[in-house]
Amino acid sequence: MTDSSTTARRLVEIRAYRLKPGTRADFHVAASEHALPMVRAYGMDVVAHGPVPNDPNGYFLVRSFASLAELTAQEDEFYGSARWREGPREALVSRIETYVDTLLWLSPAAVDDLRAGNVAPAAVA
Predict the structure, then answer these.
(1) Selection from 41, 43, 45, 51 nearest residue 16 by Cα
(2) Average pLDDT over residues 33-51
């Protein structure tokens, strides 16, 4: 018999943004300092996020959910909230040209590997 805690799969959403030229630094600050703390407060598991290394206008966000129903419920609650609409929404949305979502089912170990492998490297002095 297998342990369900190690075999349960997670629904991983990978959101790839194409940002307006010259806006990525401001987008990153708004996302990191304002939006993502709110996203986490709404119970969403932010696995990784940040600038795409080989694209000056690229940015990514990876989140993990127990199911499609959980993803839908959490996103509906968050994006429908006054706190989001009256908070950092405009600072982010105004900088986005397009985005695409991809959904994958991954093992908890794969999610943990994504989380650990996408920590920004320390700045070199």
Answers:
(1) 51
(2) 94
